[in-house]
Design goal:
Length: 202
Protein backbone atom coordinates (compact mmCIF):
# COMPACT_ATOMS: atom_id res chain seq x y z
CA UNK A 1 0.00 0.00 0.00
CA UNK A 2 1.48 3.29 -1.12
CA UNK A 3 -0.57 5.66 1.05
CA UNK A 4 -3.98 5.88 2.74
CA UNK A 5 -4.97 8.86 4.85
CA UNK A 6 -7.82 8.95 7.38
CA UNK A 7 -8.96 12.03 9.31
CA UNK A 8 -11.16 11.37 12.34
CA UNK A 9 -13.03 14.46 13.57
CA UNK A 10 -15.29 14.72 16.61
CA UNK A 11 -15.57 16.18 20.07
CA UNK A 12 -14.17 15.07 23.40
CA UNK A 13 -15.97 12.10 24.91
CA UNK A 14 -16.91 10.47 21.59
CA UNK A 15 -14.01 8.03 21.52
CA UNK A 16 -12.32 9.61 18.51
CA UNK A 17 -8.80 9.09 19.84
CA UNK A 18 -9.52 5.48 20.81
CA UNK A 19 -10.86 4.79 17.31
CA UNK A 20 -7.67 6.19 15.77
CA UNK A 21 -5.58 4.04 18.10
CA UNK A 22 -7.60 0.95 17.14
CA UNK A 23 -6.98 1.63 13.43
CA UNK A 24 -3.28 2.13 14.13
CA UNK A 25 -2.92 -1.10 16.09
CA UNK A 26 -4.90 -3.00 13.43
CA UNK A 27 -2.54 -1.68 10.75
CA UNK A 28 0.51 -2.79 12.75
CA UNK A 29 -1.02 -6.25 13.10
CA UNK A 30 -1.15 -6.43 9.31
CA UNK A 31 2.48 -5.41 9.02
CA UNK A 32 1.68 -1.98 7.61
CA UNK A 33 3.63 1.21 8.22
CA UNK A 34 1.38 3.61 10.14
CA UNK A 35 1.55 7.04 11.76
CA UNK A 36 -1.10 8.38 14.17
CA UNK A 37 -1.37 11.97 15.40
CA UNK A 38 -3.98 13.74 17.50
CA UNK A 39 -5.07 17.32 18.13
CA UNK A 40 -7.11 18.08 21.25
CA UNK A 41 -9.46 21.00 21.63
CA UNK A 42 -9.54 23.36 24.57
CA UNK A 43 -11.82 21.12 26.64
CA UNK A 44 -11.27 17.43 27.19
CA UNK A 45 -15.00 16.73 26.98
CA UNK A 46 -16.90 18.79 24.45
CA UNK A 47 -13.89 20.36 22.71
CA UNK A 48 -12.86 19.57 19.15
CA UNK A 49 -10.72 16.46 18.71
CA UNK A 50 -9.01 15.50 15.46
CA UNK A 51 -6.87 12.45 14.79
CA UNK A 52 -4.87 11.68 11.66
CA UNK A 53 -4.04 8.11 10.67
CA UNK A 54 -1.65 7.65 7.76
CA UNK A 55 -0.93 4.17 6.44
CA UNK A 56 1.54 3.20 3.72
CA UNK A 57 5.12 2.48 2.75
CA UNK A 58 6.04 6.06 1.96
CA UNK A 59 4.42 7.65 5.02
CA UNK A 60 6.77 9.43 7.41
CA UNK A 61 4.90 12.52 8.65
CA UNK A 62 1.82 11.96 10.79
CA UNK A 63 -0.33 14.89 9.63
CA UNK A 64 -2.74 14.75 6.70
CA UNK A 65 -2.33 17.79 4.48
CA UNK A 66 -5.17 19.82 2.96
CA UNK A 67 -7.07 17.87 0.31
CA UNK A 68 -5.17 14.65 1.01
CA UNK A 69 -7.68 12.62 3.06
CA UNK A 70 -8.90 9.37 1.51
CA UNK A 71 -11.54 9.12 4.25
CA UNK A 72 -12.93 11.80 6.55
CA UNK A 73 -14.56 9.93 9.42
CA UNK A 74 -16.88 12.50 11.00
CA UNK A 75 -18.05 11.65 14.50
CA UNK A 76 -20.15 14.85 14.62
CA UNK A 77 -21.64 16.85 11.70
CA UNK A 78 -20.25 20.31 12.51
CA UNK A 79 -16.78 18.89 13.20
CA UNK A 80 -17.01 17.11 9.85
CA UNK A 81 -17.60 20.47 8.16
CA UNK A 82 -14.74 22.08 10.09
CA UNK A 83 -12.32 19.50 8.71
CA UNK A 84 -13.42 19.57 5.07
CA UNK A 85 -10.17 21.34 4.20
CA UNK A 86 -8.56 17.89 4.28
CA UNK A 87 -11.07 16.61 1.69
CA UNK A 88 -11.12 16.63 -2.11
CA UNK A 89 -13.32 15.10 -4.80
CA UNK A 90 -11.71 11.69 -4.16
CA UNK A 91 -12.42 11.75 -0.41
CA UNK A 92 -15.12 9.54 1.09
CA UNK A 93 -16.89 11.23 4.00
CA UNK A 94 -18.49 8.91 6.55
CA UNK A 95 -20.52 11.09 8.90
CA UNK A 96 -22.38 10.36 12.11
CA UNK A 97 -25.70 12.20 12.41
CA UNK A 98 -25.54 12.85 16.17
CA UNK A 99 -25.29 16.58 16.85
CA UNK A 100 -23.30 17.93 19.79
CA UNK A 101 -23.65 21.73 19.53
CA UNK A 102 -20.49 23.55 20.67
CA UNK A 103 -20.83 26.11 23.44
CA UNK A 104 -19.83 29.00 21.15
CA UNK A 105 -23.05 28.58 19.15
CA UNK A 106 -25.15 29.33 22.22
CA UNK A 107 -22.83 32.18 23.18
CA UNK A 108 -23.24 33.74 19.73
CA UNK A 109 -26.95 32.88 19.59
CA UNK A 110 -26.29 30.96 16.38
CA UNK A 111 -28.42 28.05 15.19
CA UNK A 112 -26.86 24.64 14.61
CA UNK A 113 -26.92 23.92 10.84
CA UNK A 114 -29.46 21.43 9.52
CA UNK A 115 -28.39 18.08 8.09
CA UNK A 116 -29.24 19.46 4.62
CA UNK A 117 -26.97 22.48 5.17
CA UNK A 118 -24.14 20.21 6.33
CA UNK A 119 -24.56 17.93 3.29
CA UNK A 120 -24.55 20.95 0.97
CA UNK A 121 -21.18 22.04 2.38
CA UNK A 122 -19.75 18.52 2.13
CA UNK A 123 -20.85 18.30 -1.50
CA UNK A 124 -18.75 21.37 -2.30
CA UNK A 125 -15.73 19.13 -1.71
CA UNK A 126 -16.86 15.61 -2.61
CA UNK A 127 -19.91 13.77 -3.90
CA UNK A 128 -19.04 10.71 -1.82
CA UNK A 129 -20.68 10.81 1.60
CA UNK A 130 -22.24 8.07 3.70
CA UNK A 131 -24.44 9.21 6.58
CA UNK A 132 -24.61 6.84 9.55
CA UNK A 133 -27.02 6.97 12.49
CA UNK A 134 -24.33 5.72 14.84
CA UNK A 135 -26.22 6.63 18.02
CA UNK A 136 -29.17 4.42 17.10
CA UNK A 137 -26.95 1.52 16.06
CA UNK A 138 -24.82 1.82 19.20
CA UNK A 139 -27.96 1.84 21.36
CA UNK A 140 -29.11 -1.30 19.55
CA UNK A 141 -25.76 -2.91 20.37
CA UNK A 142 -26.20 -2.09 24.06
CA UNK A 143 -24.65 1.33 24.68
CA UNK A 144 -24.77 4.73 22.97
CA UNK A 145 -21.14 5.12 24.02
CA UNK A 146 -20.14 2.58 21.35
CA UNK A 147 -20.70 4.98 18.45
CA UNK A 148 -16.99 5.02 17.66
CA UNK A 149 -17.12 1.25 17.07
CA UNK A 150 -20.12 1.70 14.77
CA UNK A 151 -18.11 4.16 12.67
CA UNK A 152 -15.12 1.79 12.56
CA UNK A 153 -17.47 -0.86 11.25
CA UNK A 154 -18.72 1.55 8.59
CA UNK A 155 -15.11 2.32 7.61
CA UNK A 156 -14.19 -1.31 7.09
CA UNK A 157 -17.29 -1.93 4.97
CA UNK A 158 -16.31 0.50 2.22
CA UNK A 159 -14.28 -0.46 -0.81
CA UNK A 160 -10.59 0.20 -0.38
CA UNK A 161 -10.53 0.03 3.42
CA UNK A 162 -6.85 -0.05 4.42
CA UNK A 163 -7.29 -2.62 7.21
CA UNK A 164 -9.28 -5.83 7.53
CA UNK A 165 -12.30 -6.26 9.80
CA UNK A 166 -10.58 -9.11 11.66
CA UNK A 167 -7.60 -6.90 12.55
CA UNK A 168 -9.83 -4.08 13.76
CA UNK A 169 -11.87 -6.41 15.97
CA UNK A 170 -8.67 -7.91 17.38
CA UNK A 171 -7.33 -4.43 18.17
CA UNK A 172 -10.70 -3.39 19.60
CA UNK A 173 -10.66 -6.38 21.95
CA UNK A 174 -7.20 -5.37 23.17
CA UNK A 175 -7.86 -1.66 23.70
CA UNK A 176 -11.46 -1.44 24.91
CA UNK A 177 -12.02 -2.19 28.63
CA UNK A 178 -12.99 -5.84 29.01
CA UNK A 179 -16.49 -5.20 30.36
CA UNK A 180 -17.35 -3.13 27.27
CA UNK A 181 -15.76 -5.36 24.61
CA UNK A 182 -18.79 -7.40 23.52
CA UNK A 183 -21.04 -4.33 23.19
CA UNK A 184 -18.39 -2.64 21.06
CA UNK A 185 -17.92 -5.71 18.87
CA UNK A 186 -21.69 -5.80 18.27
CA UNK A 187 -21.66 -2.08 17.48
CA UNK A 188 -18.80 -2.62 15.03
CA UNK A 189 -20.73 -5.39 13.28
CA UNK A 190 -23.91 -3.28 13.09
CA UNK A 191 -21.98 -0.38 11.56
CA UNK A 192 -20.31 -2.67 9.03
CA UNK A 193 -23.55 -4.43 8.10
CA UNK A 194 -25.53 -1.17 7.77
CA UNK A 195 -23.14 0.05 5.07
CA UNK A 196 -22.91 -3.30 3.33
CA UNK A 197 -26.69 -3.64 3.23
CA UNK A 198 -27.36 -0.42 1.48
CA UNK A 199 -26.16 2.80 3.09
CA UNK A 200 -25.06 4.47 -0.13
CA UNK A 201 -23.35 7.82 -0.66
CA UNK A 202 -25.91 10.66 -0.59
Amino acid sequence: MKEFNIVLAGVGGQGTLLAAEIIGVAAVKEGLNVRVSEIHGMAQRGGAVVSNVRIGEGVFASTVLEGQADVLLGFEPLETVRNLRTASERTLVIMNTQQIPPTELAAKNTMYPTVEEVLTKVHLFTSKIIVVGAAELAKKAGSRLAQNSVLLGALVAVEGSPVKAESLVEALRELVPKKHVEVNVRAFELGRDSVRKGLKPV
